[in-house]
Design a protein that fits this description.
Two copies of one chain form a homodimer.
Chain A: E1 5-6, H1 7-11, E2 21-26, E3 29-39, E4 50-56, E5 59-62, E6 67-70, E7 74-78, E8 85-99, E9 115-116
Parallel strand pairs in A: 2-9
Antiparallel strand pairs in A: 2-3, 3-8, 4-7, 4-8, 5-6, 5-8
Protein name (chains A, B): Mannose-6-phosphate isomerase
Organism (chains A, B): Dictyobacter alpinus
Pfam family, one (chains A, B): Cupin_2
Chain lengths: 117, 117
């Protein structure tokens, strides 16, 4: 059976940005941690909402009509179909939840493969 | 469109134990916060895994063959079909994710109704 997951410990095991690591499965979803810094690409997911919870740092989620700025302990769900671009000025750690196999860029051609940790 | 969710702020808005509040929807799932203290009932969910992330405090999840003890920043997914009982000696704050409509006791007859906050 699975062990408990310590998110801070998992985040010590890698250093690259914008490359989520799956730490657990929840039904058909992947629970992931990711380190981000800088600007990601504008993208959208037509078939799924996009969950962001900040564990450390500060994340801006830009959308066409507005933006939200998240600190530790703050979450936001980008509704499916809404273009968005995550931006972090400093290194920021996130918890993500997405249906397993969701391309992180919104496009399988440019998405990073799923990595477990 | 939804606003960002500050989990600590949401947790100031209620005081009762074992009564999850839904703070956001993620596809067909409810993202919930809950305050717990004491022993919950033994139960299981045949159709869904059960996600627990400790935000504050300390949670023991008892299962027939073992138990896990979670502190802040630690999560555990109880696989579907596994009997479990959450126990907290001190007031403990959790983030839960479950398919919308999942009875918290595993049984619709005894479950608390879904509450939004």
């Amino acid at each position: 059976m699975e062990e408990k997951i310590n998110l801070a410990e998992k985040l010590t095991l890698f250093a690259d940005y914008w490359s989520p690591r799956t730490v657990a499965n929840l039904n058909e979803n992947s629970i992931m941690v990711v380190k981000v810094k800088g600007e990601f690409t504008w993208h959208k997911h037509d078939d799924t909402d996009d969950f962001f919870l900040v564990l450390k740092g500060r994340l801006t989620i830009q959308m066409p009509e507005r933006e939200v700025v998240l600190g530790p302990g703050e979450l936001f769900v980008v509704p499916r179909g809404i273009e968005h671009r995550p931006v972090a000025e400093e290194e920021t750690h996130l918890l993500l939840i997405e249906p397993t196999g969701t391309p992180n860029t919104g496009d399988p051609a440019t998405a990073v493969p799923q990595k477990f940790i």
